[in-house]
Write a structure and sequence with these properties.
Elements lengths: L3 E7 L5 H20 L5 H4 E7 L11 H9 L14 H5 L3 E4 L2 H10 L7 E3 H10 L12 H19 L18 H22 L8
Parallel strand pairs: 1-2, 1-3, 3-4
Helix pairs in contact: 1-3, 1-8, 3-8, 6-8
């Protein structure tokens, strides 16, 4: 069984979406290490990213974004920016965009991905209201993880119905700004990712 794949999307794929990609890996690794140390994260979850524009394709992560990842204990090794394609969307089980405009871009590029595409901040709000007891039980192993993750996406899509993301769900673009702004955006990303990790891998307290 293929691991559950999360695709993070922003504009240039060197600031917001790479931070989300690597911060999800960090949070999920920390949680999985507490509840099932024998399972490798790569066996159950893949976190990737891409940008709606190709201006920075092939480049490394923006330095202040990379600093935020390292400061929080994550890794930036092997990261290369890439332009979003329909193939990237087709292989993703969950698509998380930085803004509503980027969700619209995803919908236009691959309409079939609409039901599994969310603005990150909007998904975080939805998950706080989701009845997690109705999801398949969390258990070690790729099959159980994939079943719970797929049910989460379906339930979140049903819960949102016709509601639209709020302006506050969008992540500010920190491009060209200082470390303080990148810290704030990284904090926002982490706070939005915690409900996802809490729901996918329940059963242990979040690390301080």
């Amino acid at each position: 069984m293929m691991p559950f794949t999360v695709l993070h999307v922003c504009m240039g794929n060197i600031c917001r979406s790479p931070m989300a990609e690597r911060l999800l890996v960090l949070a999920a690794q920390q949680r999985l290490g507490k509840i099932d140390p024998d399972t490798g994260l790569d066996d159950v979850l893949i976190s990737r990213s891409a940008g709606t524009g190709g201006w920075h394709e092939g480049e490394e992560m923006n330095p202040p974004a990379a600093r935020q990842i390292r400061l929080r204990g994550g890794s930036v090794d092997g990261f290369t920016a890439r332009k979003l394609t329909g193939a990237h969307l087709a292989e993703a089980d969950l698509v998380l965009t930085a803004t509503a405009d980027q969700s619209d871009y995803v919908h236009a590029l691959l309409p079939g991905a609409s039901g599994r595409t969310f603005v990150l901040g909007h998904l975080a709000r939805l998950l706080r209201d989701l009845d997690t007891a109705a999801l398949p039980a969390s258990a070690p192993g790729p099959e159980a993880f994939a079943a719970r993750a797929a049910a989460l996406v379906s339930a979140a899509d049903k819960l949102r119905g016709d509601t639209e993301p709020l302006p506050g769900d969008d992540l500010d673009d920190p491009w060209g700004r200082g470390d303080q702004t990148f810290q704030r955006i990284a904090d926002d990303i982490e706070e939005s990712l915690f409900p996802l990790v809490d729901t996918l891998l329940p059963g242990a307290p979040r690390s301080a």
